[in-house]
Structure formats: structure tokens, C-alpha cells
Recover the amino acids of this structure.
């Protein structure tokens, strides 16, 4: 029996051991899916606090209940580790590590390369390695494959390598890890066969593509599509305001067309790990082929400029009240990058706060999902705690800024009790109780 047959049989009878590297918003839901299907899973993460919580049956992600973890820990079907030596015991190794940007907006591939080099130390015959981290086309075969092959094992015969882009949307209830189709591209046909079966066990639909490059590009297209369309409505928001129109009303009216239009909404900037980052991964890669992605880069420029636009709107609105931004007391409502989650990754709120602080404002925030800002965040070190919001507390702020439209906020009450509201989400539409001028759109 060859290596391919051995691992296929292990996957089919669910005796294959699953190792997931990176236990965040992508890795942890994947861990749970394999556990739910009867596999034994080991999670790896460099964050000791995460590992300790998981091994106690606790969750550190708000929308993932500890009930989904604790019984598997109790039954010794799941454990988390910081030590990577256990990688050699795993039959399937799935990489879910971050792929951020450097300050010059070039890909930061350190996490992928270091993880791959670690896997290579323990790589043995009969293992499948799957990269899920969002990256530029060519990463799997140009970055991952050479490192895994350096020890002499042959891909497609001794070990198997695929790319399968993550498609998580934290906090969403209508789609789950199980029901979202999974794209898989293999380095060889044998790799694709093994990788597809490994995912068919935990998702309803696997979409096979011809190469790892196509799978990598698929993820970028999905997110660049959103980035470009959000940039369009962000630009139109600025224009329609100058023309005396409400962009949200325009979008609602356009959405009544039953074909040829998909609604996208403006905001204070892009957040989350994918949409603010992925376009720059592709534009960087395109330059290596002598091509400039002008359209994509322009969209990124428009979106990245929105936090500054919001701050200017705050400054102008305060000026209309004969107040200066310097020393004004400002409350930011919402730190998460999207509503009803506890995910801070690339949140525009972080940049907005930093811009306000740099201009001398006295800034506080409230977010029911984020009680405090983590210390030593990448590029941010604000060290703030969420403040309570009440009718009385709202009155003490010169300006209240709605950056994240959590459904738990009582927007009518916020408008009623605030001196000035700057709304970057259209959350207060229809909730101003006729008190015109108290709300400024941004």
C-alpha cells in the first residue's frame, strides 16, 4: 500500500490525526468541525494564554461557545499545544497563521515561512499539508513546497500539499464552516485527491480547481471584489453629501432592481484580516510580472483614506458648535471591525482614535464586545478600557462617533442624549426625533 492509499484510508475511517496550526478565527472553527465529525485533533498556537484556555475547555472568541470545546477536551479528543514537536504525529496539518502587511504594504510572510520550516523538521511520509492563510498566487509552490521538499521527500508521492483558502465570516449565523463551499487546489493530482477528501469529511461542498495558484487567486478575487465595490460607495458617499443626498437612501432605492445590482454600504474604513490586506498582496505580486493593478490600488487608496475623512468630519462638526477638536471629549462607539463581533483585526476605529489623539482630543470608547484593548497589538498600543454608556454619561462628551453599528446600541437614546453625533454607519437614520443638526453623517 503506497502513501496515498494509506492516508486516504485513514481519512475515510476517521483515524487520521488532524493538526491545526493557528487557533484564531479561522483555525478554531476548523478544529471544532473535525471534532464534530469524530476526528482526534491537536491545535498548535504560539499564544500560551489561548492554549491554556482551550485546554480548560474555555473559548476566547465571543461567538464560539465553550460548550463546543469542553466535552472534546474532557474526552481527550482535543488538546492544544505551544510546542510543535507533536506535528510529526499528525496525518493532516492545516496552516491557519496570519499573513499581514508590512508598513510599506508588502506581504509579511514570516509566519508562513517559519511555520513551514517548523513542519519540515517533523515532516514524514504519508502526511497532508494544507495552507489556508490568504496569500498571493504562487506562495504554496514557491514558498511552502521548496521548504517541505528540502529533506528529500517527494510531493505527490511521499507527502501531499494543497492550498484551500479560508472563508470564515465571524459572527455570521446563516453560513457556517460546514455549509460554506471549500475551494481546494493541489500541487499534483494526487495531492488534490487527498486534500479534497480531507475537507469533504467536514464541509458539504468541495470545489476542486486546477492548481494551487488558482485557489490562491480565488480568495483574492473574492475579497478584492468587495474592496472595490466598498470603495465605490465610499467615494459616492462623499459626492452625494456634497450634492445634498443621502447615499443610504440611494443604495436602498437601487437595491429594488431585481437584477444586475448588489448592495454595498459605505463606512469609516475597512477592517478584518482580509479586505484591507488582500488587494496589496495581489498588487505586490503583479509588479513581479511587470503589471500595475491601478484599479485595485485606487480602491485601496479610497478605503484607506476613510478614517481621515471621519476625523475631518468630527473636526468640522465641532467647529460648527464653536469647539476645537483639541481638548474636546470624544466617545467612539464600537471598536470591532464589524457589528456584533469581538474582532479587532485592522479595525478602522483604531486608526480613528490614533488620529484624534494626535490632534489633541480626549478620546474614550465603548464596545460591549471588547471590554479592553489588548496590549502590544500590531502597530497599535492604546491600552484603553470600554466606558459605560448611559443617558447621563453621553451628555459629558462633546462628540459621540458611531464607528461600529452594534445592534445592542439604542441609537434613538444616543441621539437624544448626546450633544453631537457623528455617524459613520448610517445607524441613526430615522432615529433623530426631528432634532435636525444633532447628527452629522461621515
Amino acid at each position: 500500500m503506497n502513501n496515498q492509499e494509506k492516508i486516504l484510508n485513514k481519512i475515510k475511517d476517521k483515524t487520521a490525526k488532524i493538526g491545526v496550526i493557528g487557533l484564531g478565527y479561522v483555525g478554531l472553527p476548523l478544529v471544532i468541525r473535525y471534532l464534530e465529525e469524530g476526528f482526534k485533533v491537536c491545535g498548535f498556537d504560539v499564544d500560551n494564554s489561548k492554549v491554556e484556555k482551550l485546554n480548560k475547555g474555555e473559548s476566547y472568541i465571543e461567538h464560539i461557545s465553550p460548550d463546543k470545546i469542553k466535552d472534546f477536551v474532557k474526552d481527550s479528543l482535543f488538546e492544544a499545544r505551544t510546542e510543535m514537536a507533536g506535528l510529526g504525529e499528525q496525518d493532516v496539518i492545516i496552516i491557519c497563521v496570519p499573513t499581514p502587511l508590512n508598513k510599506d504594504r508588502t506581504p509579511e510572510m514570516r509566519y508562513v515561512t517559519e511555520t513551514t520550516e517548523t513542519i519540515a523538521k517533523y515532516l514524514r511520509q504519508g502526511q497532508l499539508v494544507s495552507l489556508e492563510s490568504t496569500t498571493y498566487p504562487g506562495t504554496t509552490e514557491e514558498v511552502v513546497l521548496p521548504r517541505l521538499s528540502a529533506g528529500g521527500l517527494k510531493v505527490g508521492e511521499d507527502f501531499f500539499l494543497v492550498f484551500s483558502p479560508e472563508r470564515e465570516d465571524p459572527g455570521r449565523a446563516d453560513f457556517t464552516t460546514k455549509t460554506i463551499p471549500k475551494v481546494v487546489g493541489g500541487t499534483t493530482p494526487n495531492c488534490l485527491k487527498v486534500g479534497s477528501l480531507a475537507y469533504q469529511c467536514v464541509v458539504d461542498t468541495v470545489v476542486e480547481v486546477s492548481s494551487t495558484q488558482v485557489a490562491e487567486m480565488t480568495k483574492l478575487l473574492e475579497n478584492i471584489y468587495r474592496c472595490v465595490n466598498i470603495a465605490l460607495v465610499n467615494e459616492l458617499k462623499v459626492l452625494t453629501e456634497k450634492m445634498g443626498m443621502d447615499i443610504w437612501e440611494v443604495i436602498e432605492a437601487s437595491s429594488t432592481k431585481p437584477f444586475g445590482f448588489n448592495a454595498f454600504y459605505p463606512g469609516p474604513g475597512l477592517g478584518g484580516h482580509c479586505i484591507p490586506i488582500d488587494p496589496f498582496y495581489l498588487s505586490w505580486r503583479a509588479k513581479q510580472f511587470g503589471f500595475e493593478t491601478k484599479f485595485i490600488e485606487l480602491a485601496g487608496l479610497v478605503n484607506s483614506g476613510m478614517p481621515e475623512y471621519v476625523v475631518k468630519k468630527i473636526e468640522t462638526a465641532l467647529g460648527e458648535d464653536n469647539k476645537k477638536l483639541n481638548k474636546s471629549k470624544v466617545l467612539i462607539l464600537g471598536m470591532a471591525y464589524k457589528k456584533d463581533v469581538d474582532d479587532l483585526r485592522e479595525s478602522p476605529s483604531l486608526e480613528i482614535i490614533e488620529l484624534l489623539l494626535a490632534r489633541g482630543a480626549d478620546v474614550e470608547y465603548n464596545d460591549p464586545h471588547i471590554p479592553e484593548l489588548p496590549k502590544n497589538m500590531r502597530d497599535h498600543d492604546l491600552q484603553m478600557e470600554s466606558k459605560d454608556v448611559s443617558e447621563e454619561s453621553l451628555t459629558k462628551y462633546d462628540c459621540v462617533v458611531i464607528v461600529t453599528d452594534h445592534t445592542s446600541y439604542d441609537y434613538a437614546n444616543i441621539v437624544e442624549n448626546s450633544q453631537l453625533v457623528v455617524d459613520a454607519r448610517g445607524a441613526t437614520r430615522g432615529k433623530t426625533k426631528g432634532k435636525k443638526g444633532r447628527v452629522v453623517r461621515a
